[in-house]
Design a protein that fits this description.
two-stranded antiparallel ribbon, 50% helix, DUF721 domain-containing protein, alpha+beta, Gyrase A, domain 2
Length: 211
Amino acid sequence: MAKPKTTDDAELIKEWPLSTAATLGSSVRAKGILLEIRARLPLAVRKSLEIEAGALTLAMAETAKSAFRAASSVVSNALEDIESLPVIPREIQDILTISITERHRWLSDGRLPSAGTRTVKLRGRARKITFHVFDPRVVEDILDRDLVTVWREEDAEARAEKRRRAALKAKLTRSLKTKAKTPSKPDVDADDASGSKPLGWEEFSRDGLLR
């Protein structure tokens, strides 16, 4: 089996540095850009494009000048608008340092706006998956304004309020149950007035019939 060609073996090399505006400071995003551009290249030369030290590197043999020029053109054209490439779920989680649960929650309540959906077919599988993507400039704004910290504080306050309401409801429920189980006390004065003296007693006494 022939040994795969490495960058050291190659004679034709070209590099394209990736800006922070493109990667948003994320190695996961940088890898996503690499995969996106590889997908636009002919299958035979895709592995010739790698990412090293924050730059895309195309390395091919001297004998592949024609293919090298064609691939270089594809990469250069793809990078012209790479900063607007939608951010996919695993990238936004790395960029904002958030969990899958937080991404779903904030997407659902509108704090994390979707830029649409994307459908892809999984390699080697028949089924397709659809997921939300995000505008890189919106993601950058969320990062710059540290909105993740604000949202987490809002969520903590909401959870505390929910626990407080639940505790109050539970206390009220217990109180109502206790009240329902406790028998009412008899009215002593009422018993004295109506039970110990016969009807008409006052008139009977006033007429002097007991003297």
